[in-house]
Amino acid sequence: MTKDVVNAAERYGVFFAGLKPEDLHQLADFFAEDARFKDPFNDVRGITAVRQVFEHMFAHCPAPRFTVHEIIVQGRTAYFHWQFVDRGPGDRGGLGLNVDGVSRVLFDAKGKVTEHIDYWDAAEHLYARLPVISWLLARIRARISAA
Length: 147
Known about the structure:
5 helices, globular, alpha+beta
């Protein structure tokens, strides 16, 4: 059982590492029909909704690239440590993101994803770029920091 999940997780990691807009039709090869996808900005269910999340990503991040650094499998659950990089703000509309994160991915008996939840710090990577919010976040961090 775990070997099947290891294989499914490795295939999934390779898919995301090479993901391009023209690959989105393959989502059904990896996701169960009613799969859930959640990140700091989205919480959707179903392949059509998952595809919309990635279409939105490609619309706003012209050169996204995922690098999977590590995959850990326990039962039907896989944890992916990854890095997401996009072009800088001066590079034709890129957001200049460089995000480290972890995804918790559950696989069904057929090796398809039933739930994919991303964990990454949106405050550090996005909110801190907004003038008023960055000032507020700096004040909050200063108050709760042990240093």
